[in-house]
Design a protein that fits this description.
The chain has 70 residues and is of the alpha/beta class. Helix content is 47%, strand content 20%. It is built from 3 helices and 3 strands; from the N terminus they run E-H-E-H-E-H. Strands 2-1-3 form a 3-stranded parallel beta sheet, sandwiched between helices. Strand 1, helix 1 and strand 2 form a beta-alpha-beta unit. The longest helix has 13 residues.
């Protein structure tokens, strides 16, 4: 079973590049465009790695990191 990467970013071009790179490297890539979706997927999937855009709109990155750690 391939390792899972969860990508959270607001720019579709960045998402495309990261997703494509991850998948060609043998990872299963999942994408979250919003913080609520990121948290839901993180709880459900337990990804091996999360790529998080620091400047996601509407929620400070430190708050998102605290929520993910919890």
């Amino acid at each position: 079973m391939p390792k899972t990467i969860l990508i959270a970013a607001s720019d579709p071009n960045i998402i495309y590049l990261l997703q494509r790179y991850a998948e060609t490297s043998g990872f299963q890539a999942m994408v979250a465009g919003q913080i609520s979706e990121l948290q839901r997927l993180a709880r459900k999937v337990h990804p091996d790695l999360i790529v998080l855009e620091i400047e996601l709109p509407s929620t400070p990155a430190k708050l998102v990191l605290r929520r993910l750690k919890a």
